[in-house]
Amino acid sequence: MHTAIPIFFAFVPLLFAERLISDSYTKYTGLKVWFALFLGLLVWNLATTWWVQKASVAGGLFANIANPILMTIPLMLMRKVRLKFGKLAGYLAFVVFWMSFEKIHLTWELTWPWLTVGNVFAAQYSWVQWYEITGVFGGTLWVLLINIWVFHAIAEYKQPLISATKKKQLIFHALGILIIIALPILISLQMYRNYQDKGKPVQFTVLQPNYDPYTEKFTIPYRVQMEEMLRTSLQHVNSETDFLIWPETAIQTDVWLDKLSWQKPVRDVSKAIDSFPNLVCLIGINGYEKYPSADKATATARHLEYASPVTGKPDTIYFDVYNTALALNSEGPIGYYHKSKLVPGVERMPYPEYMKLLNYFTINLGGIEGSLGIQKDRTVFFNKDSVGIAPVICYESIFGEYVGDYINKGANIICIITNDGWWGDTDGYKQHCMYASLRAIESRRAIARSANTGVSCFIDQRGDISQAQPWNVQSAISASLPANSAFTFYTRHGDYLARFALWLSGGMLVILLIQRLLNKFSKRV
């Protein structure tokens, strides 16, 4: 059973460890504090994301060691502020430095926002319907404030209660903590009960092919896979169906984008849906883009040497490989979008324009190896009725503000295509699916989710999941989803809470630097 209750006091042991060690030691105190914090954060990471090692033991170990190291940074900065300016300043520093860390972890190229604190309510999404206003950073702020209050109450009143005044103060703290926990939940539950899905109905069919990426996806011939996926899909498609959704990298054959209309997978799918002229298919492919010369190539471009068929002399072709979502209908391609939030170490090494040699260390999950290309802007696909769908590919569904960019470009419905089979039958694919409920609430958009295997499903604008397909089952499901065109406060303004925290963090760091310089100057004088 997934429950968010422990998060309301999960940071309290870390805060006590920092305070007690700082007060008890005079030698190597900072190092001892850091090590205690690291151990606590390591346990958190291993307990929640242990399943990463299913794809790569080395990659899993790196992620679950590097991430808690990074998590110690905001806590150690909090300690510096507390020691310099007192406990109230320390409490503020804890909030703004932690939220700043989470925001940076969403934006840099070593991004791993899986454990963003606000994500913890993915299973209890009815508690956070107000994410349509705040996004997940509202949840992070809520949790941190409660942890501070719990810690403060215990720290101040851990001695035997010998006076009536202390008893009253403790009762006040207990009631205050209960209210600050209960009130947002009650408001959210009321929002949940009263919310009605908005928008005209649109018909979707979602495919779950169920090919094991380790033993089947790269060994079963293309023809067999294509025929089976088409057969399963067309059993559920009719003249009323508007969109057919296939998962990430559903087609493993290389698809060259400069000759898209002539590629066999495109021709096969377009021919199969010829009797459904209003149907739009969204399909995950491996997209290849060729560059005319080396100076036009990107930092992630590869090169292939070959003998020119014209001159017979050696020549070189430069090209990028993408994790691509392709939209097409019976007439052929409509457009494509390249996944741009890539999994670090698997799909992309950080900052390839500066550290190109690291491309050789990307983890090979069978298929394409090396850093993939990305695109700058989001792309929305529209059908003949001007209904826009957001082609969100796998890992991208963890990024609330990023998904909001699709909404601001006109997406009425979110389509998540993913291949969670790399993580096996673990908590990983279940967590990934639950996070989608938060994206539905933030944007008030229904979601069609197509996974290679578990969990393909539909999610309404309140975050309710329906027709969830189990692990290791081949299936196709259909549903009517409302195409909402209204914007939430969050989709309009994104992670504004985190940006404010970044400004405050910057101010605190400047003050710390000035204080340090003044201390050095006073010692010299």
Summarize this entry quickly.
This protein has 525 residues and is of the alpha/beta class. It has 13 helices and 14 strands.
Description:
The chain is 42% helix and 18% strand. By secondary structure, it is α/β, with parallel strands linked by helices. It folds into 2 domains: 220 residues, no CATH class; 218 residues, Carbon-nitrogen hydrolase (Nitrilase/N-carbamoyl-D-aminoacid amidohydrolase, 4-Layer Sandwich), CATH 3.60.110. α10 crosses α11.
Topology of this structure?
Layout: H1 12-24, H2 29-49, H3 57-85, H4 87-107, H5 131-134, H6 136-156, H7 164-194, E1 200-208, H8 222-234, E2 243-245, E3 251-256, H9 264-272, E4 280-291, E5 302-307, E6 314-329, E7 332-338, E8 381-382, E9 388-393, H10 400-408, E10 413-418, H11 427-443, E11 447-451, E12 457-459, E13 465-466, E14 475-483, H12 489-493, H13 496-524
Parallel strand pairs: 1-2, 2-4, 3-4, 9-10, 10-11
Antiparallel strand pairs: 1-14, 4-6, 5-6, 6-7, 8-9, 11-12, 12-13
Helix pairs in contact: 1-2, 1-6, 2-3, 3-4, 4-6, 4-13, 6-7, 10-11
Rg result: 26 Å
- Unreliable stretches: none
Biggest beta-sheet profile:
8 strands, mixed
Separation of the first and last Cα atoms: 62 Å
Please count the helical segments: 13
Which oligomeric form is depicted?
A: single chain
Strand-residue fraction? 15-25%
Helicity level, as a percent range? 40-55%
Mean pLDDT: 92
Please trace the helix and strand order, writing H or E for each element: HHHHHHHEHEEHEEEEEEHEHEEEEHH
Cα shape? globular
**Alpha-beta content class:** alpha/beta
The count of strands amounts to 14
Task: Please indicate the count of domains.
Answer: 2
